[in-house]
């Protein structure tokens, strides 16, 4: 699985509905394999990036999940903060535009805190694990080196999935069909390489894309201690700028193939 023409990359901060995004792409007949956050254990266990290479070499064969599958392409989904400084190493694996998923950081950060609290885990974590500092750096890397990329807001793809996925798959030279937006639940499927499958229970129990209904919390809802509130305000300003990026995919856009 070393041919860059056969590898597609989706990267984003945590809680951007990236697993649901990937779940749609599993339904594409050309995508046969899926690598879920290969740098997860590399980050949390401070392992050499060669460990991530080994994870990438042993992806989930989607034929065991959605038969029949006769394609040969690999979808890689990763968190910005987990791949971190190794982003150029991962980027070199694909010959296609990188998809960056974003979502209002007030929602991503509050969701991460809420999920951790529901599993009796500490709600505080290093600010780098919001994923936003690495996202800013990785977008800058792409611009500096002329790497093609697309930005997608999870709110937009959950609101108008058809036009968004049509645009993404067209950029990857793949075909979109409306039936790719539905699936059967897979609650027994283990995805995490680090024992954190509780983050994916909602999507694994779902049957398709669910529209956004979340309320955006106020900045005052975040504790000021340890700089979290300031960080959320900074990340929100970055998010607002990203939505003005010329590579931002908007629901009203149509792919050139559809024109």
List the topology elements:
Elements: E1 7-12, H1 18-26, E2 31-36, H2 40-44, H3 50-56, E3 60-61, E4 73-79, H4 80-83, H5 87-91, E5 98-102, H6 105-118, H7 132-145, E6 149-153, H8 154-159, H9 161-171, H10 201-204, H11 228-242
Parallel strand pairs: 1-4, 1-5, 2-4, 5-6
Antiparallel strand pairs: 2-3
As a percent range, the share of helical residues equals: 25-40%
Domain unit count: 1
Q: How is the largest sheet built, in terms of strand order?
A: 3-2-4-1-5-6
What is the number of beta strands? 6
Rounded Rg: 17 Å
CATH topology: Rossmann fold
**Secondary structure category:** alpha/beta
Describe the structure.
The chain is an alpha/beta fold. The chain has a single domain (4-258), classed as Rossmann fold (3-Layer(aba) Sandwich), CATH 3.40.50. Helix content is 36%, strand content 12%. The protein has helices spanning 18-26, 40-44, 50-56, 80-83, 87-91, 105-118, 132-145, 154-159, 161-171, 201-204, 228-242; strands at residues 7-12, 31-36, 60-61, 73-79, 98-102, 149-153.
Tell me briefly what this model is.
By secondary structure, the chain is α/β, with parallel strands linked by helices.
Question: Key terms for this structure?
Answer:
single chain; 259 residues; alpha/beta; Rossmann fold; six-stranded mixed beta sheet; 6 strands
């Amino acid at each position: 699985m070393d041919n860059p023409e056969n590898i597609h990359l989706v990267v984003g901060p945590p809680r951007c509905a990236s697993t649901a995004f990937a779940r749609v792409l599993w339904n594409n007949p050309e995508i046969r394999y899926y690598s879920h956050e290969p740098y997860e254990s590399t980050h949390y266990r401070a392992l050499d990036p060669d460990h991530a290479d080994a994870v990438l070499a042993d992806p989930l064969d989607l034929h065991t999940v959605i038969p029949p599958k006769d394609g040969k392409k690999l979808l890689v989904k990763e968190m910005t903060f987990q791949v971190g400084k190794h982003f150029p190493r991962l980027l070199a694996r694909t010959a296609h535009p990188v998809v960056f998923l974003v979502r209002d950081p007030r929602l991503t950060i509050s969701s991460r805190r809420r999920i951790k609290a529901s599993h009796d885990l500490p709600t505080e974590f290093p600010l780098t694990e919001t994923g936003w500092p690495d996202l800013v750096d990785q977008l800058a890397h792409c611009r500096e080196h002329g790497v093609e990329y697309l930005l997608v807001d999870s709110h937009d793809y959950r609101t108008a999935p058809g036009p968004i996925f049509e645009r993404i798959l067209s950029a990857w030279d793949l075909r979109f069909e409306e039936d790719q937006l539905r699936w059967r639940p897979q609650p027994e499927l283990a995805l995490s390489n680090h024992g954190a499958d509780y983050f994916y229970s909602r999507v694994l129990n779902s049957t398709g894309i669910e529209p956004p209904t979340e309320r955006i919390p106020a900045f005052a809802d975040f504790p000021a201690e340890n700089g979290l509130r300031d960080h959320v305000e900074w990340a929100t300003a970055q998010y607002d700028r990203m939505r003005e990026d010329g590579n931002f995919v908007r629901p009203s856009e149509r792919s050139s193939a559809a024109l």
